[in-house]
Design a protein that fits this description.
By secondary structure, the protein is α/β, with parallel strands linked by helices. Helices cover 31% and strands 26% of the residues. It is built from 13 helices and 24 strands. It has a 4-stranded mixed sheet, with helices on one face. A 4-stranded mixed sheet has the order 2-15-17-16. Strands 4-5-3-14 form a 4-stranded mixed sheet. The longest helix is centred in the first third of the chain and has 18 residues. The radius of gyration is 22 Å and the shape is globular. The N terminus is likely disordered. It binds shikimate-3-phosphate.
């Protein structure tokens, strides 16, 4: 049956109007005084997803403090509930009563993972080795992202996947009855793919093995051990070989989630760029596989100190003290990308305000993030009058002491672009506007409030 033209036009128009109503534009401008103060950024997104998932797969109670209460993680909480685990917030602690490996139940509705690639891909791993049927979807950004990278290896354990053309969500998954252990060499450096395979291996008899050519964040390995699984890691040069013994009995555990270094990156760069600033960011995760941005900023001459380095729940953390510094350009090798993969948009902002021409190499993976971040980051800087080029997978940025600003940035449902543009606006001559700040809630719900606390210039356009 065809719909009358006027009815179709009305539906299209009302969808566009709804988008406009829901979009939350913002503007950023020079604060006119230094940024200062001491803040704690929200919990680490990667660790928060894993704590909820592993807790649901463990026997007994998992108590999580510092969980990121951003939309992405709340989607994971809802999915684990739909799979039969109890997930509750009591005061500031989240309590997960797990079902044990292999004991998740079939959800009675579609699992909607919102904007979160990590939630979707890790969950594919869990579902692939549970003998249940499920359907997964996500928002318009997630429905564009490639799922082939997890589907292809997970087929090997006996799961059946039916996806849209191009292996995009929505995705139907029939998990394997008796999952086989996988042996897989990652073709791309991706902690999400590595974790999906290890999660599938939890309910496979025998040893699951993953080889990664470049080390990626190892939160899954660390946390699996913390829950009682046997995980061994051996390194040969840059290559890491990870082996997980299947069907362990995971036992509920306490988890204290550190502050997210990928969120800390935004106030950190703002503090470096706004003249006279001095800030402290408390309790930030400093896992060495996540600190590529700090290494790069130091190469640019940044005044960064770590106060009170300590270990919390098996992860290194510390307080980052940052002071305004006149930065110089940098050449970032491709091999550093996995340790700072989410930080390129904000690093690009730092480079735009540095002396000289920077080159950020090997950024092909940025094209498949919440948006095509390589193109969108270049467009953000161009909107502020900065000269940029994309050469193959490299981003080249011509730094300037005073970026013009005055542009409006299209954020493409991407939280990190939105926050980067708002930091950029702290140093541009004219304000920078963004079309939509609503996706910031996926990873950093109190971003604007904390930036205001430090003295940043952010307001309505
Ligand atoms: C994540 C891994 C990274 C990162 C994402 C979180 C994780 O993705 O971009 O924000 O928690 O494992 P890839 O592993 O796909 O690069």
């Amino acid at each position: 049956m065809t719909r009358p033209l006027c009815q179709t036009a009305f539906l299209v128009l009302s969808a566009a109007v709804m988008d406009l109503i829901q979009a939350r534009p913002l503007q950023a401008y020079r604060p006119g005084r230094p940024l200062s103060g001491e803040i704690s950024v929200p919990g680490d997104k990667s660790i928060s997803h894993r704590a909820l998932m592993f807790g649901a797969l463990a026997i007994g109670e998992t108590r999580i403090t510092g969980l990121l209460e951003g939309e992405d993680v709340l989607r994971t909480a809802a999915a684990m509930r739909a799979l039969g685990a109890s997930v509750q917030r009591q005061g500031s602690t989240w309590i997960v009563a797990g079902r044990g490996i292999g004991a998740l139940i079939a959800p009675d509705d579609v699992l909607d993972m919102g904007n979160s690639g990590t939630a979707a891909r890790l969950l594919c791993g869990i579902l692939a080795s549970h003998d249940i049927f499920s359907v997964m979807t996500g928002d318009a950004s997630l429905r564009k992202r490639p799922m082939q990278r997890v589907i292809e290896p997970l087929l090997g354990c006996g799961a059946v996947f039916t996806a849209r053309p191009g292996n995009r969500l929505p995705l139907a998954i029939q998990g394997a009855r008796d999952a086989l252990p996988l042996t897989y060499r990652l073709p791309v450096a991706s902690a999400q793919v590595k974790s999906a395979i290890l999660l599938a291996g939890l309910n496979a008899r025998g040893v699951t093995e993953v080889e990664e050519p470049e080390p990626t964040r190892d939160h899954s390995e660390n946390m699996l051990r913390h829950f009682g699984a046997k995980v061994t890691v051996s390194a040969h040069g840059k290559t890491r070989h990870i082996a997980l013994t299947g069907q362990p009995e995971l036992r509920g555990a306490d988890i204290a989630v550190p502050g997210d270094p990928s969120s800390a990156a935004f106030p950190l760069v703002a503090g470096l760029l706004v003249p006279g600033s001095r800030l402290t960011l408390n309790g930030v995760g400093l896992n060495p596989l996540r600190t590529g941005l700090l290494e790069t900023l130091r190469e640019m001459g940044a005044a960064l100190g770590i106060r009170d380095p300590r270990i919390q729940g098996g992860e290194s953390i510390g307080d980052i003290v940052v002071e305004h510094t006149a930065l110089k350009a940098v050449d970032v090798p491709a091999g550093r990308a996995p340790s700072m993969i989410d930080e390129y948009p904000i690093l690009a902002v730092a480079c735009a305000n540095a002396r000289g021409i920077s080159r950020l190499r090997g950024l092909s993976e940025l094209r498949v993030k919440e948006s095509d971040r390589l193109t969108a980051t270049a467009a953000m800087l161009q909107a502020g009058g900065v000269r940029v080029e994309i050469e193959g997978d490299d981003l080249i940025i011509h730094g300037t002491a005073q970026p013009e600003g005055g542009g409006r940035v299209a954020t493409h449902m991407d939280h990190r672009l939105a926050m980067s543009a708002l930091v950029f606006g702290q140093v541009t001559a004219a304000p920078m506007a963004i079309d939509d700040s609503s996706f910031i809630d996926t990873s950093f719900p109190n971003f604007v409030a904390l930036m205001h606390q430090l003295g940043a210039g952010i307001g309505q356009p």
